[in-house]
Amino acid sequence: MQETVSPDGSCGSARRTRPIFVLGAAIRALVALVAFPFEAKPVLFAQDRPTNLPTDHTKAKNIAAELIRLRKLRSLPPVVIPVPAAEVERVILAWLRKQQPGDEAVRFTRALAALGCVPRELDLLPVRARILTRQIGGWFDAERSAVVIVDSSADPKPAATPDPARAIIFGLLLRDRGFVLFPPTGERLTTNMRLARESLLAGDARLTLHLFSQAQPPAPQPGADDSGNATNDMLTPSFLIELNAVAVAQGFHLAQEAHRAGGGAQLDAAYSWPPSGTAGLLGRQPDRNPALPAPSAIRIAGEILNGAAPSWDDELGQLACLAYLRLQNSEEDAVLGARGLVADRLLAWEAKGEGIPNVAWQTLWHGTEDAAAFEEAIARVIGERYGVVTRSDEGFAFSARGRHVALSRNRHSLGVLLLDAADAATLQTLATMLSEPQSTAK
Fold this sequence. Notes:
- By secondary structure, the protein is α+β, with helices and mostly antiparallel strands.
- It folds into 2 domains: about 260 residues, no CATH class; about 120 residues, Protein Transport Mog1p, Chain A (3-Layer(aba) Sandwich).
- The chain is built from 12 helices and 9 strands.
- The strands form 2 sheets. Strands 4-5-6-9-8-7 form a 6-stranded antiparallel β-sheet, with helices on both faces. A 3-stranded mixed β-sheet has the order 1-3-2, sandwiched between helices.
- Helix 2 crosses helix 6, helix 2 crosses helix 7 and helix 10 crosses helix 11.
- The longest helix is centred in the middle third of the chain and has 32 residues.
């Protein structure tokens, strides 16, 4: 029998403290997703037939009305404005910068670079805006109070020609649901929360497009250079492609099961309690399944490293964990390695000069077997990154390529701690700071 972890990080049985807010059928369906294979393709709506419909105003309005009818939304059709792809990208980039203002995206990118997810010089938000423009093909522009979609007849020609129905339904849902999922009050969302909400929105849009495409005459499937594969280029880091793939796939399955359980009304209810993390997409969100342990903040003895506070403090969540493991693991091993995550905490501290930050990633797992599966999977990622042979069953520490790296088990063998530092002394200090759970300090 596996040990389990309670919300405060100690061993013991899970406590049942919160009510269930969704139908039993929906919960069972979501739990089943743990074993459901994730989609391998980094495509937003590739399995749905493209509608290839014109984008003039009248027909765009008719598309919007039909999408609203199929999804049973209580909405008015949006104003739809075809614009060049560069303008759609500008609108998306402005929205992303409101979600991560100031230098937040820069600090996040540097933390991801310390894990080997992206190049440290990457300008994250413009890359994401380009991905979303090619995949979705539109966005809701609050300044115009309209949905802007890529005009396939614009000059210069867009790199990809997304389905206008895809762009319209996503923009419509963002208009009507975005203020609930992404509060305009400036509240900072963790990566875990942000991914869960983006996944819900994308999954709802994909489900609606799926219903719409089934009612349309067959059209040619997208080719290798169509919008479905628009992110498979050398300028897009593999981690971002994987992250998009798993988020959209799980959001779609969530929307499907909710729709089967109670139609559009059941799916609408998901927005009443915006997901607090991506665990809900894998069937382990504790406020909807109290038989499982609740996520808790990872507590450490202190946060000051070499006299400095962390430049980044975040929770990545299950989908980001899964995307990371998929970089060097089979689909099965990546899923086994990610599905038992209860909580995690990623902290980064700037190193001397302009080098890669020092980073600590503490994870806490549902049981010892879950922790072992993650440890084995992440050891493959680390070993491939640094070109070393790793032994996950014993933990390891090594120096390579100017970095000092250690992987170990802690917290009653339910925690896995990854450290990656610029020098040996910093590595030892981090190991001491995060070696055991603390009851008072966050």
